[in-house]
Predict the 3D structure of the following.
Amino acid sequence: MKNLILSTMGAILALGAMAHAAEEKVVRLYDGPAPGSEGWKHTERQVKVGSGIPPVVYNVAQPTLTVFQPDAGTATGTGVVICPGGGFCMLCVDHEGYDVACYLNAKGVTCFVLKYRLLPCETDNPMREASSGGNFLEKVAPIIKLALADGLAAMAHVRTHAKDYGVHPDRIGIMGFSAGGIVAASVAYNYTAQTRPDFVAPVYLAHDLVIKGDGVRGDAPPLFVVAASDDQFGLALQNVAIYQAWVAAKKPAELHVYAKGGHGFGMNKQNLPCDTWADRFADWLQMQGLLKE
């Protein structure tokens, strides 16, 4: 009965987040076709991947930002681009996107959920299609480059329009989950002055797939990392690796590795200590002075 109640509550919260997202402003990142994929003709779609699980988005060809703004009078001037995960073939936009935005909105943070480009899919099962018929890593390698470009474009857009969104141009960060964590971390290695994040927070990322450029930069942003030791893809140590890279470069970094949680927990509730990771992230933002006006 307890699990049924928790499952029902989770479904209600997910529906609430989806309804809230439908009311938010959606911004296209590029005026025309996205550079590097001009020939793509597929259109963005949603599909259910399991009972009680919110729909996922796939076939993203035109990257967008969904803007979540805090209630009037509560904004801190901090903004964050949020990159959901999904193996570069789909996006788990609820528990790794909209739900995160709603949580951070309550802390006064303006949020921008990024739909970055994904592997084109011809069926209604993007993960199965992406995993069959060839080497998965070879398939996603060019997509990671396109997603990095979308992450950089998202940072440039928010910074250019910071005043319109009520955020300070020097208080704009990026965070991401799984594949989205790869996007966020890649941005933190490959920025210009216009696209440099003021903080970066990858969550259970695969550091081996991150585009690292010339390594940790001299002005690299503060880093916050979250993962679980029992990550079923064996990514715990890869999250330790990015933390070690920042510490070796003498850049601010904080790491949380929970004993249990698996991969993809996001804002889901499992009655485990990792359920409170977002509170630890808020504590970290507070310590950085980013939750004050």
